[in-house]
Write a structure and sequence with these properties.
The chain has 947 residues and is an alpha+beta fold. The protein has five domains: 1-66 and 474-597, no CATH class; 109-240, Beta-Lactamase; 256-345, 2-Layer Sandwich (Beta-Lactamase), CATH 3.30.450; 366-453, Beta-Lactamase (2-Layer Sandwich); 738-909, Beta-Lactamase (2-Layer Sandwich), CATH 3.30.450. It is built from 23 helices and 28 strands. Strand 11 (368-372) and strand 12 form a beta hairpin.
Length: 947
């Protein structure tokens, strides 16, 4: 091979081989770094989505716990109100009959009544009939007075019966007038039973249908009549249940105050081994034909027990029922007051059209709220869909996932969550439920609260695609391999609705989904549900026993697009460098070989013994010595070049090339090439280590390799910044969630502190102590508004405090408009003070005292009426979240305070009723003693006259 060919081939090999090795290594490193960076980004997105979804369901669980406490508080308030109405009616009924008993006791001692009986009976005996001239004459003189007594007290009839059982007089003059009661069967005639009892004492005969009164339900009150100490007959007063006067039995029982739209009260009596209605139901115009009343609350009331319970009627309506005995001498009665459970525990606040639960689902973005009785009856829903009023254990929806969840939480007594499934009552749309049972003090389930989630409840979380490119997505898959969120790439077949409605087209059974449902977490390159190659990160999710798969995918072609661009640029750059090297090597070889050919020709000429007088035709004035020297220098230079080229081929770029002179163009070209390759290797190593901060030094505008590295570094730096931004946003969302957790925990714990039967003073202390501790306040006071019924004015009374010492010039009562507390109560507006007067209140301890720098005064209402005010003071300012919490808890505090006051008022009313009854009984006894003394005096007088 000629030396020219050898030199050209050797130069090209030495130049191209290191370039190929360095380019290939840089491309492999950059592709690997880009893949690792993409997987790292997918891991970050996967972790963010997982935390957000778990946080979402944690918030839902906390929502239903807070809601359960609110339901318990509303039910307790409803029970207190119903019991208050019930006891008020019982007190009025007992007072009504006590007044009638006292009335007949007084009348039976009246000499005029006894004389009237004696005269009517005498005329009846003489004439042998009722209505004779003598009888009518007596009726004309005495009848008006007797009728006045009957009408004044709204009696159905007033009867005078002789001791021989002759009905001598009746204000109604019905068919029983003139009848001898000894001729009727006592068991079949209520008047005769009343007569027999009245011969001995004051007695009451219970309401029964009475034939002489067109079968109206009549009760008889009877008392013996004496004249000069001898029994002459019986006075009988008849009461009718048909009377609806305000002061009548039905008038008292059917008063609707405090019973809402569906509430009603009714009387039950025990007669002839049966429980029988006495008063008409509000929903009926007349008595229910004295039907037998068979229910647990009725039996408990007749057994002299008092309480409140939830019962289911024969038409499958749930009622909140209060039962208690009515204590009237000689009668066996019970009063039952009931109201639809739905109305009782779903109040409307003020004049608002929506009830509390309707506002709740709107505010917290739920589809529906369902209240279920322990026996499976859905007695309330906000939307009133087809499941409203059905029984989840028996009716058409007993096989739904809501029914399964209700059975589960009923048996376990704990919170439960269902998976998403089609729910027929909601137009067969996908729905999930979260349910919590309300337990009684002995652990029994009283009712179940269930919240229905939208099918897109997690849509906002999964729809965020920051840093996911054009075809990246995240989605959830259930254990049945069907979607639990909406897919981005194929919403037509792989949304949650489409997937559940058409499982054959919506199934997702990719390697990532299968691995996640097996409990594995990882990343790999596989195919998605569309058969596309993707970089996929997967992990399992366990939501209250439901296993889901969380998948985060990005298209492989899109993820490695930058690596392909770099590959094309490096290949083009290598081709340009190869062409340059070939051109450079060709010129270099020509420059080296041409002088040698001249020398060879010269040497050949010399070998032939030819002497040339002419100089050699080459550049420079070389002599033989110079040619030899030049040849040696050329040989030495070529040797150095070969050594350096071998070092470059071995990947060593540290050796420096020593230039023979400033005109050594070959050496300078090699120096520039080594400098370029060193920069490429250094930048590739930094990118592989995850350092994107360094900038590539571009040799010139034509340095395509350097420009490619610059673009790749900028792309990776942008992806790194997007990951950092996503992590910062996650931290902000966690902070927001912590604030919401603090808010809900405060409401829940306050509800627990207010629950139970507490007197108003204890409740006030518990509330202010909790608020001071929870908000880290150093001092606090709690005032209750008390109205003066006589002056129609009210004042705020201090009933509870925290670390507060009353000063000499500070009163325990505050008039509306007086001071900061009175002004806040008058305006019903929250007041914030940031500069508290030194003489207002002080925080005291064993080491000193100080004035709080910040003060908040909060009024609270019940049904738009002022109920009280509380104030808190501390050294630091109150945050916006703390002020929002204080405003939100005013409604539950108002309800709790009103409940405690209602309980106190009910107790006072009962005490007053008992005191009045006792006073009437005492007066009756005194009057009876007086009449007996009068009778003895008359008897003694009559005896003296005979003597």
């Amino acid at each position: 091979m000629k030396i020219r060919t050898r030199l050209l081939a050797t130069t090209l090999i030495i130049s191209i081989l290191p370039l190929t090795l360095v380019g290939g290594l840089s491309l492999w490193k950059s592709r690997q770094a880009l893949s690792e960076q993409t997987f790292s980004h997918l891991q970050s997105v996967r972790q963010i989505k997982k935390s957000q979804i778990e946080g979402f369901f944690k918030e839902r669980r906390e929502d239903v716990l807070v809601l359960m406490h609110m339901v318990a508080l509303l039910r307790q308030d409803a029970e207190q109100k119903l019991s208050s109405v019930q006891m008020n009616k019982i007190a009025q009924l007992e007072a009504f009959f006590q007044e009638r008993l006292s009335n007949i006791a007084v009348l039976s001692q009246d000499e005029w009544i006894a004389q009237a009986l004696e005269q009517f009976d005498g005329a009846f005996q003489n004439e042998g009939k009722i209505g004779g001239l003598a009888w009518k004459s007596i009726e004309g003189r005495l009848g008006q007075g007797l009728k006045k007594i009957q009408q004044e007290y709204d009696y159905f009839d007033l009867l005078l019966i002789s001791k021989d059982a002759n009905v001598a007089y009746s204000t109604r003059q019905g068919i029983d007038l003139g009848q001898n009661l000894n001729t009727v069967v006592p068991e079949e005639n209520a008047l005769r039973r009343a007569f027999n009892k009245g011969l001995e004492q004051v007695a009451i005969e219970d309401f029964v249908p009475y034939a002489a009164a067109d079968n109206q339900a009549i009760a008889f009150i009877s008392a013996p009549l004496y004249r000069f100490g001898e029994l002459t007959g019986v006075l009988v007063l008849a009461l009718s249940l048909d009377s609806h006067a305000p002061a009548s039995v039905n008038g008292i029982v059917q008063r609707s105050e405090g019973l809402g739209e569906t509430g009603e009260s009714f009387l039950i009596t025990h007669q002839q081994e049966q429980h029988v209605y006495l008063s008409a139901l509000t929903s009926a115009s007349t008595l229910p034909d004295r039907k037998t009343a068979k229910s647990i609350d009725v039996q408990l009331g007749l057994d002299s027990e008092t309480g409140v319970m939830i019962k289911m009627t024969s038409d499958k309506l749930l009622k909140l029922s209060a039962y208690a005995p009515v204590k009237i001498p000689g009668l066996h009665w019970a009063l039952v007051s009931q109201i639809n459970l739905e109305e009782a525990i779903t109040p409307k606040l003020g004049k608002e059209k929506l009830d509390f639960f309707s506002q709740y689902i709107v505010h917290y973005d739920y589809h529906d709220l369902v209240l279920v009785h322990p026996e499976g009856q859905i007695f309330y829903t906000v939307l009133k869909e087809d499941d409203y009023g059905t029984n989840l254990f028996e009716d058409e929806y007993s096989d739904t996932h809501l029914a399964t969840l209700v059975k589960k939480v009923h048996n376990s007594g704990k919170l439960g969550v269902s998976d998403y499934a089609l729910y027929e009552p909601s137009n067969n749309e996908p729905a999930a439920f979260i349910a919590q049972p309300l337990l009684s003090s002995n652990g029994d389930v009283e009712l179940i609260v269930a919240l229905q989630l939208h099918d897109n409840s997690m849509g906002e979380i999964m729809a965020k695609r920051t840093g996911m490119g054009e075809q990246g997505e995240s989605y959830l898959v259930g254990s049945d391999y069907l979607m639990r969120s909406n897919a981005f790439l194929d919403p037509e077949h792989h949304s949650i609705q489409a997937s559940l409605h058409n499982p054959d087209k919506g199934i997702v059974k990719t390697p990532s989904v299968q691995a996640a449902l097996e409990g594995k977490t990882g990343e790999h390159i596989s195919e998605n549900y569309l058969g596309q190659a993707v970089l996929s990160a997967y992990t399992p999710l366990n939501i209250a026993g439901q296993r889901w798969a969380l998948i985060v995918d990005i298209n492989r072609h899109e993820a490695l697009a930058e690596a392909r661009k770099l590959q094309i640029m490096i290949a083009g750059l290598m081709l340009i460098i190869i062409l340059f090297c070939w051109w450079f090597a060709s010129r270099f070889t020509t420059q080296i070989v041409s002088p040698l050919l001249l020398v060879r020709n010269q040497l050949k000429s010399l070998s032939h013994g030819e002497l040339l007088d002419t100089k050699l035709d080459y550049q420079g004035n070389n002599e033989i010595a110079e040619i030899i020297t030049a040849s040696k220098q050329l040989e030495h230079a070529l040797r150095s070049i070969i050594v350096q080229a071998n070092n470059i081929a071995a990947g060593d770029y540290n050796n420096e090339i020593k230039l023979l002179s400033e005109k050594d163009e070959l050496g300078q070209a090699l120096v520039d090439m080594i400098t370029t390759l060193r920069g490429v290797v250094r930048q590739a190593n930094l990118i592989a280590e995850g350092d994107y901060s360094s900038e590539v030094r571009v040799l010139s505008d034509a340095d395509q390799l350097g420009l490619a590295l610059v673009n790749m570094t900028r792309t990776l730096r942008q992806m790194h910044e997007e990951n950092s931004s996503a992590l910062r946003k996650l931290e902000q969302e966690n902070a927001q969630k912590n604030r919401q957790d603090w808010f809900k925990t405060g409401i829940s714990q306050l509800s627990e502190r207010m629950s139970g039967q507490q007197d108003i003073a204890t409740l006030s202390k518990n509330i202010i102590s909790f608020l001071a501790n929870y908000l880290q306040a150093q001092i606090g006071t709690f005032y209750i508004y008390q109205s003066n019924q006589q002056t129609h004015q009210g004042a705020l009374k201090l009933l509870g405090s925290y670390a507060y010492t009353r000063r000499k010039n500070m009163s325990g009562e505050v008039v509306l408009g007086e001071g900061l507390v009175g002004q806040a109560a008058l305006e019903k507006q929250l007041i914030i003070i940031t500069a508290v007067p030194e003489d207002y209140m002080q925080i005291q301890s064993s080491v000193g005292e100080a004035v709080p720098e910040n003060l908040v005064i909060v009024p609270f209402n019940y049904e738009n009426q002022l109920a009280g005010v509380f104030e808190l003071g501390r050294f630091t300012a109150f945050s916006e979240d703390e002020l929002n919490l204080l405003q939100q808890i005013t409604q539950p505090i108002g309800i709790a305070v009103n409940t405690a006051e209602s309980r106190l008022q009910m107790q006072e009313l009962l005490e007053q009723s008992r005191a009045q009854a006792e006073e009437l009984r005492t007066q009756s006894e005194e009057l009876q003693n007086y009449m007996r003394n009068c009778a003895r005096i008359m008897k003694n007088y009559k005896a003296n006259r005979k003597n």
